[in-house]
Design goal:
This protein is 6% helix and 58% strand. Mean pLDDT is 90; it is low at 1-37. The two termini are 31 Å apart. With 661 residues, the protein is mainly beta.
Length: 661
Amino acid sequence: MITKQRVKRKYPIFYISLMLMSGHLFSLPAQITEDLMDMTLEQILNMEVTTVSKSAELMSDAPGVISVLTKDEIERFGGTTLKDILERMPSLSVSTIYMTDRSTIAPRGDQVLPSSAHVLLLINGRPVREAQEGGIKSEMYESFPVNIIEKIEVIRGPGSVLYGSNAFSAVINVITEPVEETVFSVKGMAGQSGAYGAMAKAKVKLGDLSIAAAGRLFKKAEWETDWQYAVPDSAAGDTIVTHTIPNEGPGAFLEMKYKNLRFMSSYAQWETAYFIADYASRFPSYGLATWDKLFLDLGYSLKVSDIWNMDFSVTDMRSTFETPSSWPYTARDSYEMVAEWTNFITPTDKLNIIFGGLYNYLDGEENVQGMGNVNHAHRWSFGVYSQLDYKLLKSLKVIGGVQANKVEKIDLDIVPRGGIIWHPVDCLDVKALYSQAFRAPSINELGLKHVAMMGNPNLVPEKVNTMDIGINYQGDQIRLGINFFDSKMTDLIIQDRSGKFPVPTYDNIGEVSIQGIEFEGKYYLSNRWFLTGSMLYQTSEDKGGNENVTPIANLGAKAGISYRSELLTVSLFNSYQGNLDEKYETQLNPSPGAYNMMNLYCRLNMKRLLNMNMSQSFALFLQVDNLLDKELWLPDWGLTPGKSMPVNPGRALYIGLDASL
């Protein structure tokens, strides 16, 4: 039988000093794959997932369009940030915002808003939100410790029936490694122009108590670049600013479990630059920004009977954002609490029922230098939800679900889910799914009082209706899928700049339809050779008939090839994004255009190479990001089209060691 090896690790902590290519002297421990645990390729390609229904089920049975990035793929292709890793997943595109959410992921071409508020991020199934702006995730994408990730599950399409607000166009669930034994590892790397990174991980198993902890500190090379903006009626003409862009921040994760009790915590911080071209002629609206996010979760599982299980969770999130040294001199501090009770009932082997309820409380404020407090508000909401799936026949399953949600001062709303999953033969599944989702207005969208932007207390939640029809083939060594989707978004909360209000004001004026087709494939030629690829073609249109209304290319394609043995790993991955609509071309700065973002990862098992008889393991690795040295500029999204901002400076090379015990 063809098998796919999974990894067990044994870890020593020791220090090896050497001069790396960048000229920096490091003392870095190393980690390496050692013992292998068999797992069939069929199990890897059709593994169990938990995100769609909050309980374990095979990918082929899950009532959603779901993709999984496995531990094997993460280790084959490397990656220094969560955003790097997510960029390899089908239908996810890297995007950026003019100011408050500088690092974003756009699913299926949806970058309608100037934030990632249409994507819900989960850690082990628990939400990581931000209340003030409505969805900032920059610090999580850039600083979460990727060395503790076991796999990533992504639902493409709505997920609000079970998850509430923000599960609008995608749900990303980062699942961390289980603790099966006591292990330790440390990794360090250095790169060009002073770049460096270090990651550490510890997993401890003491009877019923398990502890997993990970930390990360990364500083990428600073980028000095020219950014130009227009100054109307100026004799001196346009202004060019030489700006140094940092890219750095720490991240940490902790999980503790004792019998049915669990505790999780995560912290992430990130610092980089922002650019607000629309206001640059009046204010120095470019500079440095810092994001912080603290996540805490306490949960308890209870087995009521053989057919009934309960889960209780209380999740707290605190997010801060500040631009202390330049306009708009803002400082935000927001908090969200979610208390949730979920029930899982399986009265027969054909019927599964999920039902539960949740309560949210939000509080946040924003202060601006010279203006004082421009918004301080709080809000409650609650929801009840239910989903059931029933096997009418051995090959046919039907799904239905609904959530009722009530946000303070907003009318009760209901979003449904329904669909069928048909297995005409064992290796084929056909899914026809309909889902709705909502996004509640953020604190600032409701109540901001700023000279340049105003909130609107009369806003209602955004809504989306999505239809998916997909076919997936599952073989012993291959998985292929094709999916058609049609999403219609209504009541989108957009800044109205038409002159209807004295200053730009948030209003429910947006309506956008996005249709597309997705391909996805994975193929293990053997245990060692692996191929993966995906493609997305999507088009968008607003209610006025304007096309390509989001700054995401109609066509995107991704492909990777990897060789992995106990001695050597060599992997190459490329993400291609096509040309944007001509409305996103610029006059002053480089225009966004088609690009290939190619990455190389190599890893050499030094213990195997030197045939060392030792329990410890260590390896040398090479990571090259943006191998083709493409300087990347993307639209300065969120304000007036036709402006761009710097996103990627070009090739970045890192060399390092990792050690394990």
